[in-house]
Amino acid sequence: MPNIGALLRAEISRLCRREVRKEVAGVKKVSASYRRDIAALKRQVSALRRNAAFLEKRTKIPSNSQSLALPNRPVRFVAKGLRSLRARLGLSAAQLAALLGVSEQSIYNWETKKAVPRREQLAAIIAMRGIGKRDAHARLDSVKSSRATRSKKGLR
After folding, report:
1. Where on the phi/psi map is residue 105: left (φ > 0), alpha (ψ -120 to 50), or beta?
2. Distance CA 57, CA 51 (A)
3. pTM for the whole thing?
4. Where are the alpha helices (DSSP H) in the chain?
5. For the chain, N or C: smaller number of CB within 10 Å?
């Protein structure tokens, strides 16, 4: 006949293991859920980083956000070139003015050779040469939305 103490000890350890297993099962489920969430977030972060790198390359904006600068070579302004740039991008004079941060009258004066752009505007025009129609319209939308946001806040 087995010892009652040994039987009691075996039964108690079996019940303890069962209770511990019940408690740990919930923790395991939650832990697995957290691991899945973390893995999904890591995938999302890497996708966003790839997208950011692609967009940075596409817009050709330096990462340290340097201001626009003229190239080292001499640059001359040609009114006909501005007109053809505007036509190639499919922009009106008002839209181009919004993108460059000048008035519509300035665009008109530049295109009719009544005036020439300053160095800052010339640098902005040179930067516009490297973008396409989609990028120009995307930038225009962002300029319009930022102006709308500023006007809602009461800023100009």
Report:
1. alpha
2. 10
3. 0.51
4. 4-59, 79-89, 93-100, 104-111, 119-129, 133-153
5. N
